[in-house]
Amino acid sequence: MDDQGCPRCKTTKYRNPSLKLMVNVCGHTLCENCVEMLFVRGSGNCVQCDTPLRKSNFRVQLFEDPTVDKEVEIRKKVLKIYNKRDFDFSSLREYNDYLEQVEDIGRGTDWGRPPETEVYNLTNNLDVENTKLKMEQYQREHRDLIQKNKATLTREQEELEELLLLEQQGNEQRRLDVLQDEQRQLQAKRKNKQALLDELEQSQLPATILLAQHKVRAAQLETQIEQQKQTVKPTNLFSTGIHMRQTVSLVAVPKVEDVLFHYKPLHVETYGPPVPELEQLSRVGYLNHVRAAMPQDTAGGYTSALACHRAIQDAFSGLFPLKG
Amino acid sequence: MFHNSSQRKYWIFKSEDEVAHMRRKANQKFRNKIQESGKSAVSDSMFLERHEEDVLFRHYERRLLDFCNAFKPAMPKSVVGTALMYFRRFYLNNSVMEHHPRTIMLTCAYLSCKVDEFNVSSTQFGGNLLHETPAGQERVLEQILEYELLLIQQLNFHLVVHNPYRPMEGLLIDLKTRYPTLENPESLRKSADDFLTQAAMTDAGLLFPPSQIALAAILNSALRASLSMESYLTECLGLKEDKDSISKMYDSMRRMKTLLKKYELPKADEVNIYKPRLERIHAQFASSSNKRKRGYEDDSHVAKEPRLVEEEWTDEDLM
Fold first, then answer.
1. CA of B162 to nearest chain A CA: how many angstroms apart?
2. Domain identity same for B101 and B151
3. Is the pTM of this model over 0.90?
4. Which of A120, A205, A273, B217 is most solvent-facing, going by the fewest CB within 10 Å?
5. Chain A residues closer than 8 Å to B249 by CB
6. Which of residues B142, B161, B180 is at a domain's end?
């Protein structure tokens, strides 16, 4: 499953595919066991890059490439601060510029120099100090804006969650209903059987009649169940979310009148006498003068008429001189 | 089919004069090219005149025909016809002095084998070059491969050639079916075949559609056997009303016959005079493209050597 191994214990990952890899802020991976091992000893340094680490900084790796995980972390942090939305800007261009700025530090839209992205910088530990300073400055300046944006974000998230909850509840409800239905049906069947047995015991009528009655009742029960299954619960919502009672305005579709299409068969100018059709060849007698097809030739669909037709076509094509 | 082929659109010309004019232009173009490039010691007498070029052209054409006839495995007639047509078309727009006919003719044969789906591997093709050592055959094959793209280009990528052999078969079938007046059309076949082979050595392929050439062949052989066939044209081909067309068709046939009559085998002594001059021209004005072709194989070889290497195999080696 995973082609990379834990850099410390190396073998354990291959032998134990269920073992999870943890990533930390420096972007290097360690399997769970090694994480434990590392912090048991009290020292908290990464094996490969020797940066001081805290145990809480380790998160379960979601992506195959640990650098991606690291970048995702940093992006989350940065976007918590730089969280302006598209309606905060008056034009698309401004919004794009802002986005670039988030990726592009300081130099803005200066295309001449290679872009140093904020996230890029942090991910690659370039200029970390400068970037952190810049971020703090921005945070101070736009404190209120950040708060407001956070609020809208949370509100949106809440709405989404509400919808999800509703859906889940709907599903649950349906499931319960179905279960209940099935229960009821089972009970009805059991009651029916029980009733039959009782009647057989107590009633005076001969057994055959009783059995026939029972069968009739069972059939009735079946049809009842079928009908129940088929009754659609009335809803008032289409799947797209439009209410059923809502009237939708129908704009009249403009009528397009056009000339009726007439088929004209293709006419190919061969500059020669007309060639008989393939099917007519044998009738007119051409095929008598052509070598007959051998049995092995006919397997592929070859007939002597084909060769004959081709020869005649070639003979007549271009035979007449051009007019004028 | 022929009626919507590139042959009818681009490679059928109105008259022998037009064809002669094109050849003159090619000759002139080469002369101008050499004079413009300013190579030293250029005198007008060094260049070949049109009729001299013609002699050489016919000579090499005959050699191509002999090569194709001696080919093993036996080359179908259509392949031979296509090769001859390529050769003819190539030298319509190019001068013999610019590209030596001996390589071009082999390239024509090679290309026509491919186009006509007569599968011959290059080793097999090389094996047909008798009088050559295997190493020599390799060298010739290399040259053929180098010239192949040039040939295709000069043919303007119109590679499908309609030969008169199948139309002739078709006409014979039609005669047998619809023209009982003529008792034995098979008797016409042999002499019609000869007519067609001779016509392939003339410009007939560039002036007339192949079906007309085939018809001319058949009518000619009927005439030779003193069998009358006029009613075939009027009755069966439906030209009863169309006197104009009939007269035009007879006219074309007469022109074809003249072409065949005019053809003369190249005389050996003339050839022997013109060939060394051709060789000299090639030796002196070997175009830079040759050097480039050789050049990429081995850089150190770019210089005088390529020209000499080309001369190593001569015409005699082929036959």
1. 9
2. yes
3. no
4. A205
5. 320-321
6. B161
